[in-house]
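Lab meeting notes turned into a lecture example. A postdoc, R.K., suggested we walk through two folding results consecutively so the class can see how the record format repeats. The first protein's sequence and structure tokens come next.
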Amino acid sequence: MQPIPRNKTDTHTVGKSPCGGAAKGPSHYLAEPGSLNPVAWSVRTPSLTGNCSLALGRSETHGFTTLFPLDVQTDGAGRFPCGRTKMYMERVSIEYPNSYTCDGCVLQWTWETEIGVFYQCVDLEIYAGARSSCFGKCRNDGVCVNDQCECVVGFSGLYCEKEDVEASQQSVFWLFMFSLLILLILLIVALVTYIYVNNFRISRSSYIFFKRYQPWCLRNPKLDYWEQSTGNLNSPNQRQPAVEPPPA
């Protein structure tokens, strides 16, 4: 793919949105708002039903805007036929939106085939003239837009360097509530198990399991439940034969 895609991009990975599992890396491409730019890719394994689409985002977490190529026909979702024959290079031309600047843009290429969807991404910068004062300075997934860092939820500050205490407290609170819910469910399961084992006749295999691994479920784990219910001290499945008197 051209421009240069992310490092360690696995072209055989299917279904890993938005970038095929490749981690964000340094920008390999510079562009200006409103400029025309080619996007190209090679086709090694064709798909008879293949369709491509292109999208641009300020980051992976800020959403993507569909780009409509200028030299091919697309449907309403921006998809166009591609990768249907084996060839060294397929190419389309796209125009980046006017007044769209960013220091960590992501250009996403999507290929829909009969076996799944493939994703590849290019990290690039889009700016006009002199760089913005916040280019390359936004932290914690923040993006530079109109000379200001736009921060994700949970961070603030000039360069998104401050973690919001309230958001952190909310995260801790919900983690505590989730742990409490899990504990409550375990207690209910334990109570139901205890009541069932001690008030209903259970199979021998179930009794052996509880006696060996969960003896607390039994009122008296030292006294065999089967011995209580059958009066048989030797076998849980057979009663003692009656003793016949000796012949006269």
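The second example is placed directly after the first for contrast:
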Amino acid sequence: MASSIFLPSVPQLADDLKTSETIINVTIAIFIVVIGVAPVIWSPLSGFYGRKPVYLASMPITIAGSIGVALSRNVGDIIGTRVLQGIGSSAVLAVGAGTIGDIFRPTERANAMGWFYSGVGRRSPSRATILTSGSTRSGFSSSNRRYIYPIYCGMSHL
């Protein structure tokens, strides 16, 4: 969801930061690369320390990165905080399947994995669109819209 929730504000972010939309799109690409690479770190940690400590350690990283993105005043800040956000949010991708394997019997695992991946991967873009479309229509500035994801992450940590 972190990459999808960012997309509606790309034009306004480019204007606010006095840069091009292409540069803002590069920050999205960097985020996607990080969430592809960071699980290499989280997976061994979950094997050594357990899954719960990894979840508990990664969520504050995600929240801090999300707040950092919201407070960013230039493209460099956004790139740095998007990397932090990607590192934190990638733990769910890395450890989620193992958690499903721990909870469900092998005969129930396929169904549970289907629900997990439909929530993580396929439904997140639609939720992001719902969360940001109202703010776009109501006249929120991009800086106000930037707080939607940190609030969402904070609520999920509860």
